[in-house]
Amino acid sequence: MRKLLLISLSAMACGSAWAVPQKVLFSPSSTDPAITQFNSNHYSVVDPGVPSCGRLVLFLPGTGATPSMYRAFPDTAASLGFHALALTYPNPSPINDLCAQFAPLNPDAAGDARLEVIDGTDRVSFVTVDSVNCIQGRLLKALQYLHATYPGRGWGQYFSGNTLLWSKMVVSGHSQGSGMAAMLAKTRVVDRCVLFASMDWWEAGRRPYNWMSTLPQTSVERWYLLAHERDQFLDFGEMQVCAGALDLSRYGAFLRVEAAVPGNYLRRHFLSTNLDPSPVQADSYHGCPVVDAATPKLADGVTPVFEPVWKYMLLNETLPISLEPQANSVRIVFSPGVLEQSEDFLGWSPVPSAASPLTVPLDGLQPRRFYRLTQP
Question: Do 213 and 333 lie in a common domain?
Fold first, then answer.
C-alpha cells in the first residue's frame, strides 16, 4: 500500500509540474549551427493548464532589444491558451535611420529593408540579411527545435515540413519589431497583428513610407496598435497619420486606455496611453506599453497595468459592420467594402461617399433603414 501511495503521489507531482507554464530560453544557434550572429536567447512559453486555442503569438523585439526584455506579454498570451515565442532576429539599427542615411529620397526604402529582414532576399544595400538569419528562417528553425525537444507540447502545429503556417499565427512586436510584424501582416494572411509603438515615417516626404498604405493580406479588422502619447522617439501626431495609413482609423480615433473601462475599449483598434513608465525615466516612454522594465505594474508590483489591454488586443473580435448608438446619432463602423442601405431588404443601394466610421444623425435616419456590407 505504501508503494502504491508513493507512486500515486509521484504521478500527482508530475501532473502539477506539467500544469505550470513551460518557459524556455534557448539560443538561435542551438536550433541551427549556421546561425552565428544575433544569438541572444529566444523565449518560448506555453501553459498546459489552459485549453489551447491552436494559435502562436510571435513577438519581435525593438531595435537592439532581446526577447528576455519582453516576457510579460508572451506570458499573458500563454495564460489565454496561446503558444508564445519571442524571437531574436537581426535588429541592430533603426530601419528609419538607415533609410534616412542611405536612401533618403526613396519612399520604398523602409518596405524593402523590412522585407529583406523577413525573408533574406537582397533588396537594399544598407541591410545584409540572408535566408539563414532572416525572421522566417529563424522562426522555422525555432519551431522545429521546440517540436523536437518538447514533443507533445503542440509546437509542431505551426509548420508543415519546411513551410510556416502563417494563418495560425498572431504577429506582434515593439518598435522596429512592430514594423516587421506589420509587414508580415501586409504580405501574409496571419491570424492577427498586434503592434506596440509602430510607424515608418519618411522624413523627406513628410508622410508614411509607401508600404504602410498598401492593401494588406490580413484584413484590417484583425489589426491593433498601442502607442504612448509621450513617446520620446516617435512623434504621436505622426503615429496618428501612420495609423490612418494602416486604415486603423476606420474604427475611430485613438482611445486612451486608462480613461476607458478595462477590457472594453469601445472596439477601437488604435489605443494609446499617457501613463508614466515605471520607474519614471525620460527614456522609458517608448517602451512603456510592453517592455518589462518600463511598463507600470499594479499594487502587487507584478501584474502589468496593461494586461487587460493586451488581452483585448489578442482576443477582441470586430464584426465586419456594427451600429453604435451615440447621444444624437448612430455611428456605423465597417470593414473595407461597400456600405449599402435598404428600406425593405429587397432593393439595396450604396451609401454615397460612405467612409468608416460613418455618423448618421438621428433626425436624418429613416424609420426603416437597413445597412449591409458587401465585400469583394
Answer: no
Model pLDDT, residue 215: 95
Q: How far apart are CA 209 and CA 190, in angstroms?
A: 22
The range of the structural domain enclosing residue 342 comes to 322-374
DSSP calls for 123-177? --TT----TTTSHHHHHHHHHHHHHHHSTTSSGGGGEETTEE-GGGEEEEEETHH
22 contacts 50 by C-beta, under 8 angstroms: no
Find the mean pLDDT for residues 5-15: 32
Cell of 227: 502607442
**Cell numbers that stand for 189 in this block:** 494572411
Using one digit for the tens of pLDDT, what is the confidence trace for 54-69? 999 999 999 999 999 9
Residue 10 lies in a domain: no
Place of cell 513551410: 163
Give me 78's grid cell.
Answer: 500563454
Number of domains in the chain: 2
Query: pLDDT of 104-141, one tens digit each?
Result: 999 999 999 999 999 999 999 999 999 999 999 999 99
Decide if 220 contacts 193 (C-beta within 8 A). no
Render pLDDT for 199-212 as a digit per residue (tens, 0 to 9): 999 999 999 999 99
